[in-house]
Amino acid sequence: MDKRLYKSDTNKKILGVCGGIGEYFAIDPTLVRLAWVIFCFAGGSGVLAYIIAAVIIPERREIM
C-alpha cells in the first residue's frame, strides 16, 4: 500500500495538519501539536512551518 501524507479529516483542531502528520507517522497527534507549540515559542518558526504545511499538504479525496 502506498503511504501518503494528507490533512486529517477526523482529528483536526485548525486545518488538520498536526492530525495528518500524527496519522502518517502512527503517533499521537497531541505530541505533534505539543512539538508545534514548542517551535512557535522558539522564535516563531512553528507558525511559518504550519502555514507552509497547510498550503502544501493535500486534503484526502474520497474516490466514489
TrEMBL record:
Annotated keywords: Cell membrane, Membrane, Transmembrane, Transmembrane helix
Membrane-topology descriptor: Single-pass membrane protein
Keyword Transmembrane recorded: yes
TM segment ranges: 34-57
A Gene Ontology term for the protein's cellular component: plasma membrane
Phage shock protein PspC N-terminal domain segment(s): 3-59
Location relative to the cell: Cell membrane
Keyword Cell membrane: yes
Signal sequence coordinates: none
Listed PANTHER family: PHAGE SHOCK PROTEIN C
Protein name as catalogued: PspC domain-containing protein
Lineage, top ranks: Bacteria, Bacillati, Bacillota, Clostridia, Lachnospirales
